[in-house]
Write a structure and sequence with these properties.
Layout (H helix, E strand, L loop, with lengths): L3 E6 L4 E4 L19 E8 L6 E4 L4 E3 L7 H11 L4 E5 H8 L12 H9 L7 E5 L9 H5 L4 E5 L5 H9 L4 E3 L8 H10 L4 E4 L3 H9 L5 E7 L8 E2 L13 E9 L8 E8 L2 H8 L2
Parallel strand pairs: 3-10, 3-11, 6-7, 6-10, 7-8, 8-9
Antiparallel strand pairs: 1-2, 1-13, 4-5, 4-12, 11-14, 13-14
Length: 283
């Protein structure tokens, strides 16, 4: 049975189908080799929690009642339009330990067919950003013949760089210290010919992408729940932002039925800046 959402913005309000909602944004056509389109997607509670921390285990997890099938569907529609994903070493460790599910590939046959019909490879390339370079490589990447790059900073441990290089993984240097920075990483990916880059990493990567004016669009799902908890992760990690943190609402859709007993809103924001003005003019 088709699920419908209520569009709250832009006006006038109307009912629209969930399936295909984000595919209709045609993200795969927005980026160019001269100006890549970088977009991110996050899920948050009303009180700003995107994940909780188990301090005793030094682990992070997403509360199951925060997630919904509708949000995952739209997450994968964004995934399907990327030629390149950016994740991070922390996710690779959590995936290996079974604390998080595998979102490195598209499993839905219809979405794979959609990619092939739109001149995209069956699966996107994957960039793993890491300062420590201490993470396991997941077998599914090789099983699906995905191109994999490892991004790190210039001051990263040379032994770890050598370890990954010897295994055949190209290394991208994207910053002068140990950490990965937004502008040099996107510059490297631009040089490799990637046009539409989907950020599925955590708050630190989002933070540097926004501060260095690399992010073109932010998708944000907010569930109408208060999670609480003293130890948690939120969208950003750094110091107070200035004008680079200004966002403009492009659309908002309301789902009153999930999570059960609350509901959720799906929002789309563009970021200010001359590069993004060119992108948004195409939508």
């Amino acid at each position: 049975m088709q699920k419908n959402l209520l569009r709250l913005y832009p006006q006038p309000s109307e009912t629209t189908a969930l399936t295909g909602l984000y595919l209709a944004h045609q993200i795969h056509k927005l980026g160019t080799t001269e100006l890549p389109f970088v977009y991110a997607n996050f899920l948050s509670s009303l009180d700003g929690r995107i994940a909780l921390e188990d301090v005793s285990q030094s682990t992070t997890y997403i509360p199951k009642h925060l997630t919904t099938a509708s949000d995952f569907r739209l997450f994968m529609e964004l995934h399907a339009q990327a030629d390149c994903l950016i994740t991070h070493g922390g996710y690779m460790r959590a995936l290996s330990e079974g604390r998080l599910g595998n979102i490195l590939q598209i499993k839905d046959k219809a979405l794979i067919e959609w990619r092939l019909n739109n001149d995209l490879k069956a699966q996107p390339a994957v960039i793993i950003a890491s300062a420590s370079l201490d993470f396991p490589m997941h077998d599914s990447l090789q099983e699906h013949a995905q191109t994999v790059y490892i991004a790190t900073g210039r001051s990263a441990d040379p032994d770890r760089i050598g370890y990954w290089h010897d295994l055949g993984f190209p290394i991208l240097i994207a910053g002068d210290d140990r950490t990965v920075h937004g502008a040099p990483l996107i510059h490297e990916l631009q040089g490799l010919g990637y046009k539409n880059i989907y950020l599925i990493a955590g708050p630190q990567i989002l933070d540097t992408m926004i501060r260095e004016k690399q992010l073109s669009r932010l998708y944000l799902t907010i569930t109408h729940q208060l999670i609480g908890g003293k130890d948690f992760r939120t969208l950003l990690t750094g110091s107070v932002l200035g004008p680079e943190g200004d966002l403009k609402l492009k659309s908002m859709y309301y789902d009153p039925h999930s999570p059960p007993g609350s509901g959720q809103c799906f929002m789309q924001f563009s970021l200010e800046g001359p590069a993004n003005t060119k992108h948004e003019a195409a939508t």
